[in-house]
Design brief:
- This protein is of the alpha+beta class.
- 40% of the residues lie in helices and 18% in strands.
- It contains 33 helices and 63 strands.
- Strands 1-52-51-50-49 form a five-stranded antiparallel beta sheet, with no helix packed on it. A five-stranded antiparallel beta sheet has the order 2-15-14-13-12, with no helix packed on it. A five-stranded mixed beta sheet has the order 20-21-22-23-27, with no helix packed on it.
- β61 and β62 form a beta hairpin.
Length: 1975
């Protein structure tokens, strides 16, 4: 048994625990791992030898690696590389062809192509030297002994153990239904044991597949490998695999000679190592390329499955290589020694997509590709994983570390970008990722990005713009100006180098951007772009697509601008991106195929070969000299290539290439010019297109006469005759697409493989056998043999599976027999049951034939048979087939278990290749000694061809060459010294062939060899290539020619018929003429010529129908042309407001034209309207002030609102009784209602009038005092004027001065400047339009004048016709409007003009045939002038008339002079009167003639004057408009400049506005608080005044000599602890007694200091008036309210003062900020003004305006001159006199004010003296009236109290009102009592009836009970009605109890004084239930 089929033993493995711990995917992955790492399994099996010392010897045909596998138990520091294939294939053994008879044997030997038996895949390995446990077995033990391990285990365990342990120890472990977790750990010379999860430990699977791995540096104490340790690469690299035995190939059979490949499509596959060397990968090799010498150094990989990514260490001393394959490794090499320094393992599952070192080089980040996309951070020197996490769920392209922020990474990939941080947590480091959010931006793949120093990230996008990321959000999108993208397509690379940002894109451009602009980029709107222009730009070349770039290094690390670029089109470029005039042009260093190599063709006589790439390039290279000779690129991609031998071309310089567009090109090699890049050149000889789609295969017969091509798309096979200059012979249509072709061993027959699994043998036709006159298609007929392949892969797998099953059953039976002998029947039955359970649990796989036929990949004819390779289920083998099946007439044999039986049509033999990989290429070497096989995974296999019948091959020599994809071509050189392979990865390798393991000496390169063979340059006309992808194929062109030929034949026939018809028509016309000349009785009528009368109507109807049909057919074209005309008119005509109209003078050569101007756009008009609306909204604001005036207006509005009186003074007062009855209750109110007592009413009215007058006087005095200014008061307007004069008087600083401050009113913004620009454009447009209107009016005048002139000219013609010849005056010429005066006529047409055009067109057509003399002419070539248009006819009419008039006059004159005799006779006859009348008429006509001519001349002169005047005005306007255009340019430049400053200005303005708003808000708050404070103070004074008035009122109420004055004073001043009043009660709560405001907590203050006896202050003492006591209580309550209000107001005032102080401090800080913001804004405005000053302004000046003279001469340089407005100069000159006058005026005004001041002081003294006199008079009057001075306010209060009087009247009214209500309620109560009495009576009667019915019911029930005594026991118990009655009575009792409680409460209330009596609560009594169901 082979090593593959040996079951692995398990030790200490609980299968159920492992199955519960891991998921199915992990188990599957570990199964694959175990199958691929068979060497480690063998070593583990050797370490587990415990049961038997009997070792199984190596099987027959075992590989060399298999023999040595049991010896490698100990792992050395230099680990032995795995020798098993990494692609999943089985270990190499001698290849045996599986015949039907030997199929079972093959199954036994384990070499079948079927599936493997279910087995345990992993092995548990213990440490070397450890004691073997009782569960371990020896790897060399037999299968029986290995499977006896469960039995021995069962012996040592008790039978009482659980079934779980027994199940784990049974055959489950051997049969391998699930796989345990195990693995071998390499390092430090040990192989550690890994056991499944037990006792809470982490299993190997858990360690391998964590979602997040934490890292704690403190826990990691492993120092890693020794710093000086290196791996032995010589023992580890993936060398060729070979086998020992008969027919084996030596291990050094192939040696890499040279590589012409470069994987240019792989990301970041170009890195710089030093000054001259670069690093990249190609296939399974790492290549180091010397840029100067073009030499290559190769390093092989360890895994042999290709390279995923490479990276170079920052120090350039190391470089990392990430491989591909299962669990690939990262190899770190030291440079330049190229030693393998470190290996990082288990970072991903399949391939590394990207590698990147950290800036310090200590860490390495790796990205895995599908399926895990694992991001891993390595401590690569220690070969340890620090952190790992899944990067994303889709492809991730790259990962980089941040150069400035440690621990921060970025990844970009398919539709995402992710930002990572290495965050420290309590469990250690964690890798946390945050996905970028695109927001409104479209999702894009991220290829290139760069981390900026501040943490932001700049990335590219698919559409070519840059995205600036701040955190996980897009801050802005950067684009080029004018809405263009930064690049055309994806941005592949972004670098930050020396303060500059460099971008490289797929468009082949490299651009340099300003970093500071990008770093500060921001936009106001979320979806807006940030436009900017690159500092420098370089376009590398057409068709170039840059994928990556790297900067070159210099010897001393000097500043360097040279970069190397990786081109996706197959090149490596050297770029100089410096911004200088001496920079170098882009240099192409090396060129390769871009994409797959589709075919290779070696030369048959020298060491040259040609290759065809999918990129459309054809390359010829001399692999002996390692040099590319020529390169030629075509538009379409290549598919195959041939280099014919001498049988086709004697000099062998012809190449034939097939392309993806179906074209075949025949090319020749010629010498190139000396200036050319290459030695040779490719010349095109023939370009043919036989197919519509890709040419999949081409072959040439051995004689070199026939070329056969096949295609996939059109399923055709085409034949060409090479000897007849590649003449097409014909083609065949096949049943399926062609995939491959080969020549059969029989002559002139082609084997064609189809995608349907069919092989056709087609006989090649000769050129003379096929009739190609009509078509090239050849009918197959009997020339085709057909073979349809029948899939047998499933049969082979089924047979192999059955053989394994039989073998397993035999082994199980042997084990059972042994157990029966050793342990007895019980153990036998137990083991048998366990085996049966295991076998029943296993499911046999289903083997079925494929539903779709497998595609044939390659045909290899050999001898009389052919061999096929297929895809799908039949892959991995060669099938021997023939067209003559020997089993064709034999019956179908029965199938046998464990064997597959060949049926009719199935392959004769199967050559098993021991792989599941497709075979793409198979060829014999040139010498026929070996078979070369190209596999689908990129490997090359060499089999020695053995002797025997059919194709016999020895064991394979397997070489991993290409990294990914299939091998598309494998050939040897003509002398079999070299092997050339090309693959899908774009690589082309040349290997040196060492026959029998002996290296052959290479021939020396010889230029003469090349020169002697290359064909001489062929001269002749160049051949047209087929570049159009839609070009006709050969057959299509043939069919098109035939179709055109058929059309020409039909047209010739039509012409012949037309000629016949024309002859008949001519004869018929002659017949009609003859008929007309005959006598009437012989003449035929017109109807007689009609053979069929209905025929005419039918023809007329057909003509009408034809017209309708033509109209319908032309409707679409007509509408199309109408729409086109409308669009053209809209695009070019409608946008023009006025076209160019030239107006000519009549009698002079002067002319004037209009201004051709376009209509203003709607956007321009809308922008102007918006700006005007804004100006209207801010009418008082200065332009560019940015809302400063609006802010002032809003501030003033707020101040006005503050100054207005507010209800409640801005705060809410308490609704106390003082507010309700407060001061007005004491003082009274004028607005009170009129009392009924007239006397009291009159006295109150007088008192109120006096009070009102006094209050008015006080208010007037207060207002006057408030307006009184302080002694130091100064007018603010005056101060502002003085300050303005100080600042601005004499200040004539220029805008260029350093200390110039831009006034706020002159600050301009982009919006205002844009509006200014638009307004200027509008003004220019209006000016032009006004002038155009004047010109159009003058043109209308000319038209009117022409009409009048025509009338005058007609009248003149009439007059001059009657005048004698000598009296005729010269008539002025009537002017005509020329075409340029009426340009709109060009767009006008009328039916007449259309008819004229048709007539001219028909005439031209008629002239054509006449000139040519035949039918079907293409238009006439006559010289006759075209007919005049209607306008020309109209214009020529007056001229004709004018020319006709003199002619008529001349005619008349000639007539008069005919005969003199006749004239004499007439004169005698005319009377004298007639002569006089005639003379009078002539005189009148002469006068009229003179008048008409003078009118015409005058009109012409006036018109010409207007033309000259208008022309002069236009010249002046031209000057003004030119200045306007210059002004527009200036405004546009200013607008661009302001746009640059707009962003900063907005920021500064917003900051200032924010601070100003804060200051205004703070000022408003302060003003509001101060206003509140002042109102509170006023209110406080009012309360204190009210308190004082209350005290005075109390004193006056006591009167004099009141014996209870002290007592009542104590009552009044008594301090009471009052409970704060609750919220205002509803109803009449405000009318409750004042005693309710007191509570039991009242505190009495007994004051006996005056000797007054103790009296109760709460009770009115005997003898004291009760009314006076109650009034005192009321006043005390009011006093307490006032005191509380005063205290509360004091607290509020204090808090307001504190708040005002705090706000004042804040306002100072804000004011300082405002000042700073203003200073910043002024500095910015100054900077902006400086930039504005740099703009050039064009000013048109006359010489007399220049007043700057030097020595009386105009200076040559006017740089130091100042252009000043003349009005300004005059204003400054006149201002001097104005200032002198103002000064004198101010002096006079000061004197007048001084006099007025003295007069006012004197008046003040007089008023003071008058006031003292009035005071003295008032005192005297008081003494006279009262005898002493009295207080007038107190005197007013002594009068009648209005409140008391009003209360008395109110009480009287309410008494009447309430007495009426009481009477009404009494009436209602009596009525209710009456209704209650009636209801009670009714209820009593009902109760009586109920009682009687109840008694009747009881009697009936007793009678019923007696009769049914024994019935109804189940109904015994209480009745439902009784229960309800009981419940009702209980409720009644509860109701009565409630009524009792209510009555008790009422009694208690009545016992109190003045208690309110409320009606008792009425509870609803539940209704009585109906009795007996009655109502």
């Amino acid at each position: 048994m082979s090593e593959d089929q040996k079951p692995s033993a398990f030790g200490k493995l609980n299968l159920k625990d492992a199955t519960n711990k891991v998921n199915a995917e992990a188990l599957r992955q570990f199964t694959i791992e175990a199958e691929e790492r068979k060497k480690k399994e063998a070593a583990a099996a050797a370490a587990l030898a415990a049961v038997s010392g009997e070792a199984a010897g190596p099987e027959q045909g075992e590989t060399e690696e298999g023999k040595a596998s049991t010896e490698d138990v100990k792992v050395n520091l230099v680990p032995t590389p795995p020798q098993t294939p990494k692609d999943g294939s089985r270990p190499s053994s001698s290849r045996k062809a599986i015949t039907p008879v030997a199929a079972a044997v093959g199954g036994e030997e384990g070499s079948t192509g079927g599936s493997k038996p279910a087995e345990a895949a992993d092995t548990v390995v213990t440490k070397e030297g450890a004691d073997k446990s009782e569960y371990e077995t020896d790897s060399n033990a037999s299968v029986d002994e290995a499977t006896d391990a469960p039995k021995k285990l069962r012996k040592k365990k008790k039978k009482t153990e659980g079934a779980t342990g027994e199940a784990a120890a049974k055959g489950e472990l051997g049969t391998g239904g699930a796989v345990g977790a195990a693995g071998a750990a390499e390092g430090e010379g040990e192989v550690e044991a890994v056991v499944t999860a037990e006792n809470g430990k982490k299993s190997a699977i858990d360690e391998k597949y964590p979602e997040m791995l934490d890292y704690n540096p403190d826990d990691d104490v492993d120092p890693g490998p020794d710093p000086n340790f290196f791996y032995d690469l010589e023992q580890m690299y993936a060398r060729a695999k070979t086998s020992s035995g008969e027919g084996s190939t030596p291990s050094n059979f192939l040696t890499l000679f040279h590589s012409f490949g470069y994987e240019c499509l792989k990301r970041a596959n170009l890195h710089v190592l030093d000054e001259t060397h670069v690093l990249f990968s190609a296939g399974n090799y790492i290549q180091i390329f010397n840029v100067d010498t073009k030499k290559l150094t190769y390093l092989p990989t360890v895994g042999g499955k290709g390279i995923g990514s490479i990276a170079v260490h920052p120090s350039r001393k190391y470089f990392a290589v990430g491989e591909q394959g299962f669990e690939p490794e990262i190899l770190i090499f030291e440079y330049p020694s190229l030693k393998l320094y470190r290996i990082c393992r288990k970072g991903t599952e399949r391939s590394y997509a990207f590698l990147s070192f950290s800036p310090d080089g200590a860490k390495l980040a790796s990205l895995g590709s599908s399926p895990d996309y694992m991001l891993t951070i390595w401590d690569w020197k220690r070969e340890k994983i620090i952190l790992r996490s899944k990067a994303h769920g889709q492809d991730v392209f790259r990962v980089t570390f941040s150069t400035e922020i440690e621990g921060q990474l970025t990844t970009g990939g398919l539709g995402h970008i992710k930002f990572w941080k290495m965050a420290a947590t309590f469990t250690g480091l964690k890798l946390q990722g945050e996905l970028g959010k695109y927001g409104r931006t479209a999702i894009s793949d991220i290829e290139g990005y760069v981390e900026l120093p501040d943490g932001k990230v700049l990335s590219g996008s698919e559409w070519g713009n840059m995205l600036l990321w701040d955190g996980d959000l897009i801050k802005c999108e950067l684009s080029s100006t004018e809405n263009k993208n930064c690049h055309k397509g994806q941005i592949q690379e972004i670098f930050l180098d020396e303060g500059e940002l460099i971008t490289a894109g797929a468009d082949g451009s490299v651009k340099i951007w300003d970093f500071e602009t990008i770093d500060g980029a921001d936009v106001l709107e979320e979806d807006a772009m940030f436009p900017m222009e690159p500092m420098s730009e370089m376009h590398v070349g057409d068709g170039v697509s840059i994928i990556s770039m790297c900067k070159t290094v210099t010897e001393n690390n000097d500043t360097n601008s040279m970069w190397l670029a990786q081109d996706a089109s197959g090149g490596i470029w050297r770029l100089d991106i410096s911004v200088s005039l001496t920079k170098k042009a882009p240099e192409l260093i090396q060129s390769y195929h871009a994409g797959p190599v589709r075919g290779i063709a070696p030369c048959s006589y020298t060491h040259m070969a040609a290759s065809m790439g999918a990129d459309g390039t054809v390359r010829v290279f001399d692999y002996l000299r390692k040099h590319t000779l020529v390169r030629k690129k075509y538009k379409s991609g290549g598919s195959c290539i041939l280099w014919p031998g001498r049988n086709v071309d004697s000099k062998c310089v012809t190449l034939i290439g097939g392309f993806s567009d179906g074209v075949i090109r025949v090319m020749t090699l010629d010498y190139a010019e000396q200036e050319s890049e290459y030695e040779l050149k490719i010349s095109l000889q023939h370009a043919l297109k036989p197919h519509k789609g890709e040419v999949t295969a081409m072959i040439i017969d051995d004689e070199g006469k026939t070329l056969v091509t096949g295609s996939k798309d059109d399923c055709t096979l085409f034949f060409f005759d090479i000897t007849s200059n590649y003449l097409p012979i014909g083609f065949m249509k096949l049943e399926a697409p062609v995939t491959t072709m080969a020549w059969s061993n029989s002559s002139k027959r082609v084997l064609v493989g189809l995608s349907s699994g069919v092989v056709l043998e087609v006989e090649c036709p000769d050129s003379g056998e096929v009739d190609s006159s009509v078509t090239y298609e050849i009918q197959p007929g009997s020339k085709i043999n057909r073979y349809e392949f029948k899939s047998i892969g499933y049969k082979i797998k089924k047979a192999a599976h059955e053989m394994v099953k039989i073998k397993k059953e035999e082994e199980q039976q042997k084990r059972l027999d042994k157990i029966m002998v050793d342990e007895g029947e019980e153990a036998y039955l137990e083991e048998k049951k366990a085996i049966e359970d295991t076998n029943s649990a296993e499911e046999d796989p289903v083997f079925e034939p494929p539903t779709v036929s497998n595609q044939i990949i390659k045909i290899f004819p050999y001898e009389d048979r052919f061999y096929l390779s297929l895809d799908g289920t039949d892959t991995g083998a060669l099938y021997e087939c023939t067209f003559n099946d020997p089993l064709a007439d034999m019956p179908t044999p029965p199938s046998m278990r464990g064997r597959w039986v060949r049926l009719n049509g199935e392959p004769l033999r199967v050559i098993d290749m021991d792989t599941d990989i497709e075979i793409h290429e198979i060829n014999l070497m040139q010498d026929g000694s070996n078979v070369m096989v190209g596999m689908g995974d990129g490997t090359i296999r060499i089999h020695k061809k053995l002797e025997g019948s059919g194709l016999q091959m020895g064991p394979p020599f397997t070489l991993p060459a290409h990294s990914s994809g299939s091998v598309n071509g494998i050939m040897t050189s003509f002398d079999t010294r070299f092997l050339i392979s090309g693959g899908n990865d774009g690589n082309l390798f040349v290997y040196k062939v060492n026959h029998a393991g002996v290296e052959l000496s290479l021939p020396s390169p010889s230029d003469s060899l090349l020169k002697s063979k290359v064909k001489e340059e062929i001269t002749g006309p160049p051949v047209d290539d087929i570049d159009d992808l839609k070009a006709y194929s050969i057959e299509e062109a043939k069919q098109k020619r035939e179709h055109e030929k058929m059309l020409k034949t039909a047209e010739d026939k039509k012409i012949k018929v037309r000629k016949t018809i024309a002859t008949l028509r001519s004869k018929f016309k002659k017949l009609k003429v003859v008929n007309k000349d005959l006598p009437k009785h012989l003449t035929l009528l017109a109807n007689d010529f009609s053979m069929d009368p209905q025929m005419g109507s039918i023809i007329a109807q057909e003509v009408s129908d034809s017209k309708d049909l033509i109209r319908k057919q032309l409707a679409w074209n007509s509408e199309k042309h109408r729409i086109e005309l409308m669009k053209l008119r809209k695009r070019f005509k409608d946008v023009v407001a006025t076209d160019r109209i030239v107006l000519h003078a009549v009698e002079s050569d002067h002319l004037v034209s209009t201004f051709r101007c376009a209509k203003p756009s709607e956007a321009m008009q809308q922008a102007l309207d918006d700006f005007h609306k804004k100006l209207a909204a801010d009418s008082n604001g200065a332009p560019g002030s940015r809302g400063s005036d609006a802010r002032r207006i809003s501030t003033m509005a707020r101040q006005i609102e503050v100054s207005e009186p507010k209800t409640g003074l801005g705060f809410v007062r308490k609704n106390t009784e003082l507010d309700m009855h407060g001061p007005s209750a004491v003082v009274g109110s004028k607005g009170g209602k009129k009392l009924k007592d007239a006397k009291a009413n009159k006295s109150l009215q007088k008192a109120e009038e006096r009070k009102s007058k006094r209050l008015q006087r006080e208010l007037a005095w207060k207002n006057l005092s408030s307006r009184k200014p302080s002694e130091n008061y100064e007018d603010p307007q005056m101060l502002a004027a003085i300050e303005d004069a100080k600042n601005n008087m004499g200040d004539f600083n220029l805008k260029t001065a350093k200390n110039y401050k831009v006034p706020e009113s002159q600050r301009q913004g982009g919006t205002f400047k844009r509006a200014q620009l638009l307004e200027l454009r509008r003004m220019i447009y209006m000016t032009k339009m006004n002038f155009n209107e004047r010109l159009l009016a003058l043109r209308d005048r000319k038209q009117k004048m022409i009409t009048e002139a025509e009338d005058w000219s007609g009248r003149l013609d009439t007059i001059q016709a009657k005048l004698p010849a000598g009296s005729i005056m010269a008539k002025p010429k009537v002017p005509v409007l020329l075409d340029d005066e009426l340009p709109e006529r060009a767009m006008e047409y009328t039916p007449e003009s259309l008819r004229e055009f048709k007539i001219r067109h028909d005439e031209e057509k008629k002239r054509g045939p006449a000139d040519e003399g035949g039918f079907g002419g293409f238009g006439g070539f006559g010289d006759s002038p075209p007919a005049p248009t209607a306008a020309e006819t109209k214009a020529a009419a007056p001229v004709a008339k004018q020319a006709a008039a003199p002619a008529a006059a001349a005619g008349d004159k000639g007539g008069e002079g005919g005969t003199e005799a006749e004239e004499a006779e007439l004169e005698d006859l005319v009377s004298t009167l007639e002569n006089e009348n005639e003379n009078l008429e002539i005189m009148m006509m002469l006068h009229e003639q003179e008048c008409l001519i003078s009118q015409m001349n005058e009109a012409y002169k006036e018109f010409d004057k207007e033309v000259v005047k208008l022309r002069t005005a236009k010249i002046e306007l031209d000057v003004e408009l030119k200045n306007g255009d210059l002004r527009i340019i200036l405004l546009f430049e200013e607008l661009l400049l302001l746009k640059e400053f707009e962003k900063r200005e907005n920021i500064l303005q917003e900051a200032l506005s924010s601070k100003l708003s804060d200051r205004d808000e703070m000022s408003d708050k302060i003003e509001e608080l101060e206003e509140k404070l002042s109102s509170k103070k006023l209110y406080m004074e009012e309360l204190q005044e009210n308190e004082k008035i209350l005290y005075d009122s109390f004193t006056e109420q006591l009167g004099e000599n009141n014996k209870f004055a002290d007592y009542l004073t104590k009552v009044f001043k008594k301090k009471i602890k009052r409970v704060k009043k609750a919220a205002e009660m509803d109803g009449d709560s405000d009318e409750s007694d004042s005693d309710d405001d007191f509570d039991s907590s009242s505190e009495e203050e007994d004051d006996d200091e005056d000797g007054v006896e103790h009296l109760d202050l709460n009770i009115c003492p005997p003898g004291c008036s009760q009314e006076l006591y109650d009034a005192t209580i009321v006043m005390r309550e009011k006093k307490l309210d006032l005191e509380e209000a005063i205290q509360e107001e004091k607290k509020i005032i204090d808090s307001l003062r504190k708040e005002v102080d705090a706000l004042v401090k804040k306002n100072k800080v804000i004011s300082h900020g405002v000042k700073c913001a203003k200073n910043d804004l002024e500095a910015f405005q100054l900077e902006k003004q400086k930039k504005m000053n740099e703009l050039d302004i064009v000013v048109t000046l006359n010489l007399d305006q220049i007043q700057y003279m030097q020595n009386g001469v105009l200076p040559s340089d006017l740089v130091s001159c100042l252009v000043f407005h003349s009005a300004g100069v005059n204003q400054l000159a006149s201002r001097i006199k104005e200032l002198q006058q103002e000064k004198a005026h101010q002096i006079r005004k000061f004197k007048e004010l001084k006099k007025s001041h003295i007069h006012l002081i004197k008046g003040k003294k007089g008023m003071q003296e008058k006031l003292l006199g009035l005071d003295e008079k008032c005192q005297n009057m008081m003494l006279l009236k009262f005898g002493r001075e009295v207080d007038l306010k107190k005197l007013e209060n002594i009068s009648t109290n209005r409140i008391a009087e009003e209360l008395k009247e109110t009480i009287a009214k309410k008494d009447v009102k309430y007495s009426r209500k009481l009477n009404e309620w009494d009436v209602q109560i009596n009525q209710a009592k009456q209704r209650l009495l009636t209801a009670t009576r009714d209820h009593t009667s009902h109760l009586d009836i109920l009682n009687e019915l109840t008694k009747d019911k009881q009697d009936l029930e007793s009678v019923l009970d007696s009769k049914q005594k024994n019935l109804g026991g189940e109904y015994s118990g209480q009745r439902k009605a009784d229960l309800k009655e009981r419940q009702r009575l209980l409720q009644l009792v509860q109701l009565q109890a409630q009524e009792i409680d209510a009555l008790k409460d009422e009694i208690g209330i009545l016992s109190r004084k003045d208690g309110h009596i409320l009606p008792p609560t009425q509870t609803a009594v539940p209704p009585l239930p109906p009795i007996g169901g009655r109502c």
